[in-house]
Every structure is written in C-alpha cells, then in structure tokens.
Amino acid sequence: MAGDDAVPLLAVRDVTKSFGAVAAVAGVSFALHGGEAHALVGENGAGKSTIVKMLAGVHRPDSGAIEMDGAPLVLGSPADARAAGIAIIYQEPTLFPDLSVAENIFMGRQPLGRLRRIDKAAMKAEAEELFGRLGVHLDPDRPARGLSIADQQLVEIAKALSVDARVLVMDEPTAALSGVEVERLFAVARTLCAQGAAVLFISHRFDEVFSLCERITVMRDGRWVSTDPTADLTVDQVVRRMVGRDVSALFPKEEVEPGEVVLDVRGLTRHGVFSDVTFSVRRGEIVALAGLVGAGRSEVVRAIFGIDRLDEGEVHVDGERLPAGSPAAAMNAGLALVPEDRRQQGLVMELSIERNATLTRLGALARVGLLSGRAERRAAREWTKRLQVKYGLLADAVGTLSGGNQQKVVLAKWLATEPKVLIVDEPTRGIDVGTKAEVHRLMSRLAGQGMAVVMVSSELPEVLGMADRVLVMHEGRVTAELSRAEANEETVMFAATGQNGTAA
C-alpha cells in the first residue's frame, strides 16, 4: 500500500454538491493510491452515489476539486471520466445483448484492418489478452445475451482495461453474485491493484470490505467522518461511525413461545428445481431458509405463494389446503410475499408512494367500485408512519426513495393485508446497516404479535441472529433442520454444501 505522503493517484478535495436545498455531499475529502483497494461506506443517503456520479462525470461538484496525479481534473461528462482513466462498474452492467463479448469491449474503438474494415481476429486476440491479464476464461466470440451478472461485470472490467483505466470504481458489485463469483471478482480486483490501479469499493457487506480493502472511508449525512487503515478498525467501530450511534442490537430478536402450526408445507416438488420440501411454521416463529445461491430457496417460497407451478406437494394454511398456482388464493388465506427483487417484482417504480403502499388493498379502499383518494392517502400515511418511511410527498414516485425506504414500502403494502404468514425473500439485501436493524426489529415485533415469518436470506449473520429454526437447502433439497441453539456458521455451511453427517 502506498504511504499517505505519496501523491495519490486520485484525490477528492473538499467537494460539495447540492440539489436544490438538499446538500447531498458537503466538504468530503479522501484519496486513492495506486495498488490499493479503498472502501467507501455509509448508510443509504450518506452521499456515496453522488460521489460516484461526480467521479463518473455525471455530476460536477459545486465546490472543491477532483485531482489526478496531483493535478486538477475537470469531469464534464462520462467521456471525460473515461479519457482520464476512471471506470465505473455498476451492480447491474449494461451490455449490448446481441453483440459478442469482444464487440462489447471495443464498442466504438474496434481495431481496423485493410480498407478500414473491423479486424475481428485482432479484436478477439486483444480480448483474450485482456482476460488473460485478469486471470479469467471467457469466450470473446460468445454473445453477451445470457451471460451471468458476474461475467457481465468481467466484460466491463476488461473494457476498462482496454482503455487503460487506472481507477476502478465498484458500486455494490457483489449484490447479485454467489460466493464463488465474489471470490473471482476479488481475485480480479487484487490483480488490478498489483498492476498499479486503484480500486474504490462500495458495499454494505462488511466481511467483503474487510477482506478486500486496505483503507475504509466512512460517510454520514453527506459528510466525511473518517478514513483509517482497515487493520485499525472493527466492524462495530465502522457501524458506530456510519449511523452516529451504537447499534445496540443489529438483530433485536424477541424470545417468543411459538403457538399452533399455521403454515404446513408437505412434499413440495418441482422437477429439476427442488424436491420433497417439507416443513411447518408456527405462530410467533421465524423460520429461515438458508443455503448457497442456486439452492432453490426463492423458488420454494414462490411456489408456496402460487407464483411458480408445482409438480407435487401440498400447502396448508390453518389446516386448509391451498389451491396450487393461485397467488390470489394465497393472499385470501393470509399469506404475504415480499420478493427478492423489490424494484422489478415488489414495486411499480413509476407510481406514487401512496399507490404502491396500497396496491394490495385497492378493493377494500374502494366505495361503490370507485377508489377513494382520501382513503388511499389515509391508509398509505398510516403504514408509512408505522414503518418510519422517509419521503417528501406521498405523491412522489416510489423510485425517488432510497433502497431501504423502498423496502419499507414493500413491507407496508403487504403488512396492510394483516397476513397470518409473512414470507420475506432477502429482506435486507442492498440496504444499509441502520435500516437493516429497523427491518429486523419489525420482523421480531410481528412475530411477537403472533405472525408466522418465513425468511430467505443469504446473509449468515442475519439467519443466525433472527431465526428460531433454520432449514438449510442444497441443490433443491432440505439437508438440515437446526434449532436456534444448534445453528452456527459451521453447522449451516456444512449442510449448505451438501455434506453428510454432522459438523465436527
């Protein structure tokens, strides 16, 4: 790692950016050194995205400066950022799906041969050389359509290398990746650092931050809080700086005596996806479905709710069998499903906050077949207040909210139906630590009031901190059922990897 006295590769000096009366960033400074991975962390709304957009040339700072190699850098457009050697790798890359991997890498800069025709052989060879530098194997001739998110990100990184990018900004790059894909991405990042590049890594996952990064900059409410070597920090210290208070309990789990069985799942099978999944959930109980990405957990809860078809098996609520493949029947029986992808499946981003919060109750709010705007606003106001949603106006589009507040609106929409069983798929993915604690507290309170909760989560600390029982899945089958006392990182991961027997 470069010393603090060395001229940084890129420096952000006292930058400020306001949108109207709101100061998104106020007097923030930090430096990136070549050969170093540097984390930028903070709650949703802390100003991280505004910093990224300034580095990308989308926004210009109102005051302050961005410097490269000690010289002022004016970034008036994304093209200016690319020309300066700054590349942004977003959570969801945007490639041309019908072009090949190599064509995507060299779009607009294709090598030309005789008669100024595109030299496809040279383009393929250069793409192979780039992937070789990154230490990964990807066919330059294959179409981009169908590539995994992880492979799409590698194409974006190869594109950055092809224009000699010296600063790589990774904005929540691992949210949709499996553990193996994360490790491959980190290996690529370390390779880039070894070649002299600087990596700015933005993530809510502290295990990844502490694994990859040499230094951590913390932001809160648009302001710089601290920059320190990772080795000098603990997770608790970083959390405290991010939220400005002690998070006394990130997993505020209430002890509840479970009641009678409310959800009974028997022999659920969908050929090639999951097989013979059987479990029950009692009132007041939080049951977690754990496992690695691709284990079939989301598919199981979608089938329980009637979205995906079943080949075999039955679902019973309070002893009554649900008709298969009918979300309407599931809702009428008292089931609610908060999906994994809140933007695509949980919300209508163009609609208002109040309409999204009441979508599940439009019939109940109507009078003589006509929707009452006053009743809709009253219901939306009640639930957004209960869940402490931060917004400007209820009439604002839900897409204007932060990720954590969007998640609360999805929860509000379903809690307004007063369900018997709440199914939440990745309840805190992509939201900050303070909001995670609020969501956990809400789940615990609902269970304490007698609601049955089924939680799908890929975050092991969340599973261990919130669940009364843990069902572990591997390749579509339940491989272990663990009590709260039996569940730990070793026993869960042992079952999640499909190993037989009991962890030592």
Furnish the topology, listing elements before pairings:
Layout (H helix, E strand, L loop, with lengths): L9 E10 L2 E11 L4 E5 L6 H8 L7 E6 L2 E3 L4 H7 L1 E4 L11 H5 L14 H15 L14 H14 L4 E5 L7 H16 L3 E5 L3 H7 L2 E6 L2 E7 L5 H9 L17 E10 L3 E9 L3 E6 L5 H8 L7 E6 L2 E2 L5 H7 L1 E4 L3 H5 L6 H6 L3 H4 E2 L2 E2 L1 H14 L16 H13 L5 E5 L7 H16 L3 E5 L3 H7 L2 E6 L2 E7 L5 H8 L8
What can be said about this structure in brief?
The chain has 504 residues and is an alpha/beta fold. It has helices at 48-55, 78-84, 101-105, 120-134, 149-162, 179-194, 206-212, 235-243, 297-304, 327-333, 342-346, 353-358, 362-365, 373-386, 403-415, 433-448, 460-466, 489-496; strands spanning 10-19, 22-32, 37-41, 63-68, 71-73, 86-89, 167-171, 198-202, 215-220, 223-229, 261-270, 274-282, 286-291, 312-317, 320-321, 335-338, 366-367, 370-371, 421-425, 452-456, 469-474, 477-483. Helix 4 (120-134) packs across helix 5 (149-162) and helix 14 (373-386) crosses helix 15.
Q: Can you walk through the features of this model?
A:
It is built from 18 helices and 22 strands. The chain is an alpha/beta fold and 504 residues long. It folds into 2 domains: 10-95 and 147-243, Rossmann fold; 261-496, Rossmann fold (3-Layer(aba) Sandwich). The protein has a 6-stranded mixed sheet with strand order 6-7-8-3-9-10, with helices on both faces. A 6-stranded mixed sheet has the order 16-19-20-13-21-22, with helices on both faces. Strand 17 and strand 18 (370-371) form a beta hairpin. The protein is globular. The two termini are 39 Å apart.
